[in-house]
């Protein structure tokens, strides 16, 4: 696999990373053996950048990764995790130094490491100046606990404020052929400042799979169950449009998932998508994206089939979008 730099001065990592939220069962049941097999496959394919978070199963995803790292000390993975969300007494955001330190220390313990390559603020606490939060993260760098600073789902203006205090390594936001808001400033700001842009859900939460997911089969715990794009009549409309994209991919001999990954990579050399999966078979399709090369004709056809703004319904419910900085 080709590599890309994780932010200016950061490490080289595989162009396609692996989001590990699925290891915590957000999209259905999984087990330790299957998750470990997926991590084995990642190493085989050159996928060496893992993305997890404290909130994923309240540490379950980190524990799965930690058990793998312990059994495979020469794993070669670069690890990113996240903090800043607390769940007691109710879900809220806390970016204070004391809270972030507790969260980071607990993440390191579950992962079985004393250092992570990248630490994100999962959601920004709006009342606390981002300059203060960045100073806290800079302390963690000096203490040798993290390699770089990251933020998730912030606005370009917030990135500029943080970056003025200490260089930011990466910004993570949802970005795919059906979620395009980062094109309204974040992708450009990251490129200008030398910050990696890390798209999560680049295969649209399973919509770019060979077969569409069936919302009727979603478990009560499935993250998608309350998302408007997976509710009728939006879901039927989205499937109808995506059938044309599937036909295009078939005509080129590509999988829809691989094509979706290739499209994100094609949007900038500083972009490192982190698709999530819990199986080896799906990972095989995702890494195909690194090998796909588009012609101008391909780009034009994708744009015709899936023009910006084509998706029906919001990407999050009103409850899920709390904490996301909406800058346009």
TrEMBL record:
<protein>
    <submittedName>
        <fullName>Aldo-keto reductase</fullName>
    </submittedName>
</protein>
<keyword id="KW-0560">Oxidoreductase</keyword>
<feature type="domain" description="NADP-dependent oxidoreductase">
    <location>
        <begin position="16"/>
        <end position="305"/>
    </location>
</feature>
<dbReference type="GO" id="GO:0016491">
    <property type="term" value="F:oxidoreductase activity"/>
</dbReference>
<dbReference type="Pfam" id="PF00248">
    <property type="entry name" value="Aldo_ket_red"/>
</dbReference>
<dbReference type="InterPro" id="IPR023210">
    <property type="entry name" value="NADP_OxRdtase_dom"/>
</dbReference>
<dbReference type="InterPro" id="IPR036812">
    <property type="entry name" value="NAD(P)_OxRdtase_dom_sf"/>
</dbReference>
<dbReference type="InterPro" id="IPR050791">
    <property type="entry name" value="Aldo-Keto_reductase"/>
</dbReference>
<dbReference type="GO" id="GO:0005737">
    <property type="term" value="C:cytoplasm"/>
</dbReference>
């Amino acid at each position: 696999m080709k590599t890309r730099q994780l932010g200016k001065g950061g490490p080289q990592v595989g162009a396609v990373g692996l989001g590990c939220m699925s290891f915590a069962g957000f999209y259905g049941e999984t087990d330790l053996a299957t998750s470990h097999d997926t991590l084995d496959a990642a190493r085989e394919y050159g996928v060496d950048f893992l993305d997890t978070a404290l909130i994923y199963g309240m540490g379950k995803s980190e524990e799965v990764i930690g058990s793998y790292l312990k059994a495979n000390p020469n794993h070669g993975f670069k690890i990113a995790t996240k903090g800043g969300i607390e769940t007691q007494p109710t879900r809220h955001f806390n970016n204070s130094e004391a809270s972030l330190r507790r969260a980071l220390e607990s993440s390191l313990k579950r992962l079985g490491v004393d250092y992570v390559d990248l630490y994100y603020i999962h959601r920004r606490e709006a009342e606390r100046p981002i300059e203060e939060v960045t100073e806290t993260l800079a302390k963690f760098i000096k203490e040798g606990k993290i390699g770089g600073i990251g933020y998730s789902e912030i606005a370009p203006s917030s990135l500029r404020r943080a970056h003025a205090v200490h260089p930011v390594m990466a910004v993570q936001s949802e970005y795919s052929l059906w979620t395009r808001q980062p094109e309204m400033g974040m992708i450009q700001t990251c490129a200008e400042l030398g910050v990696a842009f890390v798209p999560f859900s680049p295969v649209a939460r399973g919509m770019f799979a060979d077969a569409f997911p069936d919302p009727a089969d979603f478990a009560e715990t499935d993250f998608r169950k309350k998302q408007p794009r997976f509710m009728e009549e939006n879901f039927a409309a989205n499937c109808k449009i995506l059938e044309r994209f599937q036909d295009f991919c078939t005509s080129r001999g590509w999988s829809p998932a691989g094509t979706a990954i290739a499209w994100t990579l094609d949007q900038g050399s500083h972009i490192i998508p982190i698709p999530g999966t819990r199986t080896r078979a799906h990972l095989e399709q995702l890494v195909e994206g690194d090998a796909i090369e588009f012609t101008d004709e391909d780009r034009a056809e994708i744009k015709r089939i899936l023009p910006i703004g084509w998706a029906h319904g919001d990407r999050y419910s009103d409850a899920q979008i709390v904490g996301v900085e909406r800058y346009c």
